[in-house]
Amino acid sequence: xxxxxxxxxxxxxxxxxxxxxxxxxxxxxxxxxxxxxxxxxxxxxxxxxxxxxxxxxxxxxxxxxxxxxxxxxxxxxxxxxxxxxxxxxxxxxxxxxxxxxxxxxxxxxxx
Length: 111
Known about the structure:
Blueprint: H1 2-17, H2 25-32, H3 39-53, H4 70-82, H5 91-103
Helix pairs in contact: 1-3, 2-3, 4-5
């Protein structure tokens, strides 16, 4: 289990330095449906975590422990499946779009 988390962390560090358009929705979707035992699925998990960690607009507030990522990943998988017309867009943009409805930051104005 520790090796899986190290792989995810390593991949997310790699992805955060890569161009955002390197992975589009088509590639992201193919990685997401790979069997859990395959490297492509781990890359999908790492990419999603990397996008969350590097969210430049700071509009995502995800407070999910690493061992409870399945519901979050399911949101992204379902979004990709239900929006085939958007799959040519950047994978990172699609992840943010998928997660905003549930994990949007709510800012309270200071008085």
